[in-house]
Amino acid sequence: MTSAAVPAITSAGAASSASAAKLQMHREGAVLVLTISNPAARNTVNPSIYRAAAKAIRATSGFRTVRAIVLTGEGEHFCVGGDLRRLVRQRKLPQAEQMAHSDALNEWVMAMQEAPQPVIAAVEGTAAGSGFSLCLACDLIVAAEDAEFVMSNVNFGLSIDGGGTDSLARSLPPQAVIEILLGGSVQHARRLHDWGVVNRVVPRGTAYATALAWAQKLAQGPFDVQARIKELVHSARGRSRREQLDAERGVLVESLYSDESGKRIKEFLAARKKG
Fold it and tell me: How far is residue 138's CA from residue 119's CA, in Å, rounded to a whole number?
């Protein structure tokens, strides 16, 4: 890892000539903010945004100057997924091209999972289709109290993309997942919060501010340990209990002997002694 600054990450955009959709990027201290920007179309996304987001997140993985990431949408909505008009046009083109587009979306999802930094979704308005999947791919979700989530794919005769089936299956029992995916109906923020899918429900218009404040707090934590804890959580499902215990042991021992741990333990004990 290096502490050098991330090049060209403080202000950037990626746009397609065929669409007004773009990805805006800026820094808030140690937090990288990614904003899906296509408010006139409720922040629909396209393959150029998939690739730009994955590239931006991958670029931060080796830099300690970025300690947390916030993903949000411009205006009143988070993201309503792909543009159906683009998908209609896509039906006239080879299936291999759509496979490549899906791979680009999947790369964005994997980039968020594999990033050492915690990734927080800030959701206002609607998160639908792959927009819902992108929320679920984040490590944490902050949602406005009137936010709505829907896997509407089935309503158009389409299956789920962006890892939505996997994310929900990791969080909920099969009955709840099937209800959400086959019904294609709206799920409200508070119901998902009750189920443990959404972390925090906040007043309308405050999701981004809340997510940013949370990200800035997490950014003050120990980079390496947070990254390893996140990795342990994401890899647990594919391991036996014994394998996970061994993995936890290795990370604990490694972190215990680190300079960061020594410093933080010493500071804690000193403060406790004074108190």
Answer: 5
User: For 73-100, what is each residue's pLDDT tens digit?
Assistant: 999 999 999 888 888 887 888 888 888 8
If we measure between CA atoms, which residue out of 200, 59, 52 comes closest to residue 116? Answer: 59
Type of residue found at 266: K
Cβ pair 107, 55 in contact under 8 A: no
Among 162, 121, 165, 112, residue whose Cα is nearest residue 140: 121
In this structure, which long-range contacts are made by residues 147-150, counting pairs with CB atoms below 8 Å and at least 24 apart in sequence?
147/78, 147/123, 147/188, 147/189, 147/207, 148/186, 148/187, 148/188, 148/189, 149/123, 149/186, 149/187, 149/188, 149/189, 149/192, 150/126, 150/184, 150/185, 150/186, 150/187
Query: What size, in residues, is the chain?
Result: 275
Q: Do 73 and 16 touch, CB atoms closer than 8 A?
A: no
Q: What is the pTM of this model?
A: 0.89
Instruction: Look at the block and give the residue holding tokens 């993995």.
Output: 247
**Residues 219, 214: Cα–Cα separation, whole Å:** 9
Pairing of strands 119-123, 126-128: unpaired
| DSSP state, residue 172 | S
Asked whether the beta carbons of 224 and 3 are under 8 A apart, the reply is no
Q: What is the mean pLDDT of residues 175-200?
A: 96
